Amino acid sequence: MTKSIVCLQPLTAEQQERIQAAAPGYTFTQGDGKNPDLQMLADAEIVIGWAKGIADTLLRPDSPLRWVQSWSAGIEKLPLERFKEREILLTSGSGVHAEPISAVIFGFMLLFTRNLHTAVRNQMNRYWNSDGSESELFGKTAVIVGTGAIGSETARIAKAFRMKTIGVSRSGKPLANFDQVYTTDHLPEAVSQGDFIINILPITDETKQLFNTAIFSAFKQGSYYINVGRGATTDTEALIHALNRGQLRGAGLDVFETEPLPQNHPLWTMEQVVITPHSAGITDQYANRIVNIFTENINSYLSSGTPSLNLVDYARQY
């Protein structure tokens, strides 16, 4: 039987050719995640992307499936327990978001320090006004919770603004461009120092509603909260309370516990909040970066049987 790779996300002809060239001996098929062909998927050894309604076909006892390359960095919506039971290799799209999401992070920070969010609203009302509270990033402290590819790129850029950078990670391991890195159990101490607290965490059992009332109470008075990780890492009611009582001066939010954010949600009407529709990671370079990850991984998969980049540890859920 011919070995098969099926991609469920649209790729250009050039991108398809790159995958085919990297995987001699395999057939490559461009599938459709919105209307998946189960007969075609039934013979796949490697699948790029995922779709609703395909799990029973791909995870049946006699399936040849051995490896799934996720199209996203987040993997919480995939059937992880079934993957684990079947010993399916899973690699994430971690790393594809570093450039676009770090740009959104600094977009939020610059909006707040220069009051550009209020300037846009004033412009809509033809209202010429400044309250004189404009500031700058120089000398400010960014606490970056999650020091992976996005966090590391954010810290690198922050140094160009001559900011102090504090990281928070499971290991607390020192990293380039971070002045200090705390372990997660020291999160209250870390956030108490931040002018900007930037949440880039994935959703796991450990991170669910990690940002709760106790953590927001530890924030420096008048600081800003930015969440570009996962909405479920934050207790939204606790966030609103921190905003209402002035503990937080503002928040830049790309992700929410419920998406889309309901039209009657109070966050919509809070002038100190800037909302983007879970779009921070969107970029016209996305597919190219996934293909880069996949082609490097297929080389190691063919030589050793295991992809080398972004291999998910099911115990850690990332």
TrEMBL record:
Q: Which UniProt keywords apply?
A: NAD, Oxidoreductase
| Signal peptide, first to last residue | none
- Tell me which domain of life the UniProt entry assigns to the organism this sequence originates from: Bacteria
Q: Has the keyword Magnesium been applied to this entry? A: no
* E.C. no: 1.1.1.79
- The answer to whether the entry has keyword NAD is yes
Similarity remark: Belongs to the D-isomer specific 2-hydroxyacid dehydrogenase family.
| PANTHER family xrefs | 2-HACID_DH_C DOMAIN-CONTAINING PROTEIN, D-ISOMER SPECIFIC 2-HYDROXYACID DEHYDROGENASE NAD-BINDING DOMAIN-CONTAINING PROTEIN
Name it: Glyoxylate/hydroxypyruvate reductase B
